[in-house]
Task: inverse folding
C-alpha cells in the first residue's frame, strides 16, 4: 500500500532527511468551528501529519491537559458524527496531509465498527490509533480496517519486550507510535538515551517509520528526539493552549517553532 | 469479535483470553499489557500453590475472622411472612465488609510478586479501608484514589484509611465518584509499572481481575453451602445479593451456578428509578460497551460516552458491572433486578429494628428485594442474602434522608 498518504508523507520526509512533525488536537475542542480553524493552520505552519483525538468521557491513558480537552469538546457538542464531519471539512481543503484518528474503543464500538470504518474512510482518514485495543483484542477491527486501506497504528511502549513485539508488529502499518515514557500523555519528559536504545531495538524488528510521543513539549526536546525518530508527536502542549483565545493565538507560532527545530536538522544533514 | 462459546457449564469461565462470551477481555493501554500478563501468570501459579492457599486460609481465619456466621433472621422472616431468610454475615469480617477477602488474596500475591507499592480505587471506602488495612499489616505503602464527592459522603472511611497509614487522593475529575477514581488509579499504574500492584476491589477490570477477585470472594458461597446444609440439610432455594461491580454477589453465587434449582437475584441500585438517568443499574438499564479494561454492560449515551450513575449508596454508584455478571444476565442464569433509594432506606430501618443489625446501604438494596420475594414464597423456601457490609459508615447519610438524627430517634 505504498500509495497511502501516510506512506507518501514518510517517503518525502526521508528524502528531506528529517523527522516529521505530528500534531495532536482533540476533535471539537474547544468547539467545532475553533477546532477546524486551528486544524487549518497546522499544515501551513509545518505540521506533517495530524492526529485528531476522538473525545471520550474516560480517557484513561491521557493526562490532565488532554482529558480537559476531551471534556470541553463533549460539553460543546462533540460526538462521533461531528468528529467525522470535522475530518470531512478539513479533507475538503487539504488532500495531502495525513490524518490519524486517535482515541478509545467504546465510541467506535457503539457507533458500529463497520459503519465507523466506512464513514471514516469516506471522510478521508488515513490511520487509526486505539489506545485501549492491544493486539489481544484488536481482531474485531484490524482486518476490517486493513480491507479499507486504513492503517492500524500500533503503540510500542517502554514495557514492551522482544517477546511481545512480534504480536504488536503483526498487522501494524503506516508507522509505529513509540510511547516515550511509562505514563500518561503530557506529564513526564522522555529520557533521550532510553528512547534511543528502544528505537534502535525496534528498528531491528520493523522497517515501519517510528514516531515518538507522550511528554514532548518544546522545540528543544523535539529537536533532540527528531535525530532518533521519523516523527515527533506533540499533543498536550497544543491542547492546553487551545481553550483560551490568548494562548490559542500562540499555537501557530509554537507549531512553526517545533517544525523549524526538525527542519533545521534537515539542513544540517544536507550540508 | 471473539465469541468462542463457553462450555455448557456456568462456572468455568472465562476462556483463556479472559472472555465470558462476548464480555470481559483485556482492553488496556499497551503499557499495561505486560503487567496484566505477568499478573495472570503469577496468579495461576499461586492458585495451584498449597503454601499460598494455606497462608490465605490462615489470614482469613485468624485475621479476618472467617468463616462468617450464617444467621437465621427469625424476626424478619416472621415479619415478612413466607420464606425463611438467612443472612450471610460478611459484615462481621474484620474491616466490616466482604472486601477483606479479596484484599488478603491480592496482598499475598503482591508480596509473592515482589511488588513494593500498592494502589487502589474506592467508592464507599470499604475497599479502600480493607486495602489500607492489609497494607498496614504487610508493611507496604498504600495510595487510595477516591472521588471527591465520595470523600464528602463517606468521611468516616476516609479517616479510617488515613489512620491506617494510607494516602487518600481526592479525584476531582468527572463526577468525582468511583469511575473517576478507577481512571486515576489506572493512570497511576501506567506511570509506576516497575514496583506497583493495583488491588482492584471488584470483579471488573482487565483479565485476570474479574476471575481472580471472584475466586477470592467465592469463600462466601463455599461457606454458605456447608452452613446451610448443616442447618437445613439442603441447598437454599434463592440467593440474593446487591450489585455494584458485583464482587459480593459473585462470591455468593459462583459456587452454586451449577445447582439449577438454586435461583439467584442480583440487586442493582435503582436510585430514583430506571426511567431516568439517576440510577446505577448497568445491567437493567445499560448496554454493552468497553470501559476500564473489559466489555460489559455500561450506563452510556448513544455516542458511547459513559454516564455518571446515581445511588444513595456510594458503593453501588458505578456505571459498569463485572463482565461475568453481564454474561450471566445474557445467559439467563441469574435474574437482575433494581431497587430504589427509598426502598433500600426502608429495608435499612427494618433490619435495624427487627434484627438489631445496621446493614450498609449496599446490602440494604438486597434486603429490599428479599422483602419483595419472601412474602410470595412458601414457609419452606430458603433465602440466603449476603449481608456484605455493616452500616456504621452510612448513619449520616441515613440521617440526612430520614429527617435528621432527631427524626430517626423519635420515629
Result:
Amino acid at each position: 500500500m505504498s500509495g497511502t498518504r501516510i506512506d507518501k508523507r514518510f517517503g518525502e520526509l526521508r528524502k528531506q532527511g528529517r523527522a516529521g512533525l505530528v500534531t495532536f488536537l482533540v476533535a471539537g475542542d474547544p468547539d467545532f468551528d475553533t477546532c477546524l480553524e486551528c486544524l487549518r493552520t497546522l499544515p501551513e505552519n509545518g505540521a506533517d501529519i495530524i492526529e485528531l483525538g476522538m473525545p471520550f468521557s474516560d480517557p484513561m491513558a491521557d493526562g490532565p491537559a488532554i482529558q480537559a480537552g476531551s471534556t470541553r469538546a463533549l460539553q460543546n457538542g462533540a460526538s462521533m458524527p461531528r468528529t467525522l464531519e470535522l475530518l470531512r471539512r478539513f479533507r475538503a481543503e487539504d488532500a495531502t496531509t495525513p490524518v490519524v484518528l486517535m482515541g478509545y474503543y467504546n465510541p467506535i464500538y457503539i457507533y458500529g465498527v463497520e459503519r465507523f470504518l466506512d464513514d471514516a474512510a469516506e471522510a478521508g482518514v488515513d490511520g487509526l490509533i486505539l489506545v485501549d485495543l492491544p493486539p489481544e483484542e484488536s481482531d474485531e477491527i484490524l482486518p476490517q480496517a486493513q480491507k479499507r486501506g486504513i492503517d492500524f497504528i500500533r503503540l510500542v511502549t517502554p514495557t514492551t519486550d522482544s517477546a511481545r513485539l512480534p504480536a504488536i508488529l503483526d498487522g501494524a502499518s503506516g508507522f509505529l507510535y513509540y510511547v516515550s515514557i511509562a505514563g500518561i500523555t503530557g506529564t513526564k519528559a522522555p529520557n533521550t538515551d532510553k528512547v534511543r536504545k528502544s528505537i534502535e531495538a525496534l528498528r531491528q524488528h520493523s522497517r515501519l517509520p517510528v514516531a515518538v510521543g507522550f511528554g514532548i513539549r518544546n522545540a528543544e526536546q523535539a529537536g533532540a528526539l527528531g535525530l532518533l525518530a521519523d516523527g515527533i508527536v506533540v499533543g498536550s502542549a497544543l491542547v492546553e493552549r487551545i481553550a483560551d483565545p490568548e494562548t490559542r493565538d500562540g499555537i501557530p507560532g509554537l507549531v512553526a517553532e517545533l517544525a523549524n527545530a526538525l527542519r533545521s536538522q534537515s539542513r544540517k544533514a544536507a550540508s | 469479535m471473539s465469541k468462542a462459546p463457553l462450555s455448557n457449564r456456568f462456572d468455568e469461565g472465562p476462556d483463556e483470553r479472559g472472555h465470558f462470551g462476548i464480555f470481559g477481555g483485556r482492553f488496556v493501554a499497551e503499557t499495561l499489557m505486560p503487567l496484566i500478563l505477568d499478573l495472570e501468570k503469577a496468579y495461576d501459579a499461586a492458585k495451584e500453590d498449597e503454601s499460598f492457599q494455606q497462608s490465605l486460609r490462615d489470614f482469613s481465619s485468624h485475621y479476618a475472622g472467617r468463616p462468617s456466621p450464617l444467621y437465621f433472621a427469625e424476626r424478619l422472616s416472621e415479619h415478612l411472612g413466607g420464606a425463611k431468610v438467612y443472612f450471610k454475615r460478611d459484615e462481621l469480617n474484620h474491616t466490616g465488609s466482604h472486601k477483606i477477602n479479596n484484599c488478603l488474596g491480592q496482598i499475598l500475591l503482591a508480596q509473592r510478586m515482589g511488588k513494593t507499592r500498592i494502589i487502589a480505587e474506592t467508592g464507599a471506602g470499604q475497599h479502600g479501608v480493607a486495602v489500607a488495612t492489609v497494607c498496614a499489616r504487610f508493611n507496604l505503602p498504600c495510595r487510595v484514589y477516591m472521588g471527591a464527592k465520595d470523600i464528602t459522603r463517606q468521611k468516616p472511611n476516609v479517616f479510617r484509611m488515613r489512620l491506617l497509614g494510607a494516602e487518600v487522593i481526592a479525584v476531582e475529575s468527572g463526577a468525582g465518584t468511583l469511575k473517576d477514581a478507577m481512571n486515576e488509579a489506572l493512570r497511576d499504574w501506567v506511570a509506576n509499572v516497575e514496583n506497583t500492584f493495583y488491588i482492584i476491589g471488584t470483579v471488573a477490570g482487565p483479565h485476570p481481575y474479574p476471575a481472580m477477585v471472584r475466586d477470592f470472594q467465592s469463600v462466601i458461597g463455599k461457606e454458605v453451602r456447608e452452613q446451610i446444609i448443616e442447618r437445613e440439610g439442603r441447598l437454599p432455594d434463592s440467593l440474593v445479593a446487591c450489585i455494584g461491580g458485583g464482587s459480593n454477589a459473585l462470591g455468593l453465587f459462583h459456587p452454586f451456578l451449577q445447582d439449577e434449582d438454586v435461583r439467584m437475584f442480583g440487586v442493582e441500585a435503582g436510585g430514583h428509578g430506571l426511567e431516568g438517568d439517576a440510577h446505577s443499574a448497568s445491567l437493567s438499564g445499560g448496554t454493552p460497551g468497553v470501559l476500564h479494561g473489559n466489555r460489559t454492560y455500561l450506563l452510556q449515551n448513544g455516542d458511547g460516552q459513559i454516564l455518571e450513575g446515581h445511588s444513595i449508596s456510594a458503593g453501588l454508584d458505578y456505571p459498569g458491572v463485572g463482565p461475568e455478571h453481564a454474561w450471566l444476565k445474557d445467559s439467563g442464569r441469574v435474574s437482575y433486578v433494581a431497587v430504589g433509594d427509598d426502598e433500600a432506606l426502608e429495608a435499612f430501618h427494618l433490619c435495624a429494628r427487627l434484627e438489631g443489625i445496621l446493614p450498609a446501604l449496599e446490602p440494604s438494596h438486597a434486603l429490599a428485594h428479599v422483602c419483595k420475594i419472601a412474602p410470595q414464597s412458601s414457609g419452606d423456601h430458603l433465602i440466603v442474602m449476603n449481608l456484605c457490609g455493616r452500616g456504621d459508615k452510612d448513619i449520616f447519610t441515613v440521617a440526612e434522608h430520614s429527617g435528621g438524627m432527631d427524626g430517626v430517634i423519635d420515629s
Summary: The CA atoms of residues 87 and 128 of chain A lie 13 Å apart. The two ends of chain A are 33 Å apart (CA to CA).
